């Protein structure tokens, strides 16, 4: 018949499991913050996508007329 010994229930395993639970809690909190930041970034991008985009081919040539060029006399 097996005898249960009290020495098998040392305090070190309880402290170790407490640290593991604390680390698990911190890791899941960090993961939740990263996922919330990612979702808010996605929401902002989808909100901004309704604005019209400038034409990409003529952007540089269209803005050249906005510069002030001194005229040679």
Account of the 3D structure:
By secondary structure, the protein is an all-alpha fold. The protein has one domain (about 1-70). The protein contains 2 helices and no strands. It has helices at about 10-50, 60-65. The longest helix is centred in the middle third of the chain and has 38 residues, at about 10-50. It is rod-shaped. The model has no long low-confidence stretch (mean pLDDT about 75).
Provide keyphrases for this structure.
single chain, 73 residues, mainly alpha, 0% strand, rod-shaped, membrane, transmembrane, Cytochrome P450, family 4, subfamily f, polypeptide 16
Write a concise synopsis of the structure shown.
The chain is 60% helix and 0% strand. The chain is mostly helical.
Give me the number of helical elements: 2
Overall residue-averaged pLDDT value: 76
Query: What does the radius of gyration come to?
Result: 32 Å
Biggest sheet statistics: none
Keywords: Membrane, Transmembrane, Transmembrane helix
Transmembrane segments: 20-42
Protein name: Cytochrome P450, family 4, subfamily f, polypeptide 16
List the helices and strands and how they pair.
Blueprint (H helix, E strand, L loop, with lengths): L10 H38 L10 H6 L9
């Amino acid at each position: 018949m097996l005898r249960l010994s009290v020495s098998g229930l040392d305090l070190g395993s309880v402290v170790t499991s407490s640290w593991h639970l604390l680390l698990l809690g911190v890791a899941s909190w960090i993961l939740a913050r990263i996922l919330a930041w990612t979702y808010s970034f996605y929401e902002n991008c989808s909100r901004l996508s309704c604005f019209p985009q400038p034409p990409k081919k003529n952007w540089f040539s269209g803005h050249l007329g906005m510069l002030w060029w001194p005229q040679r006399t």
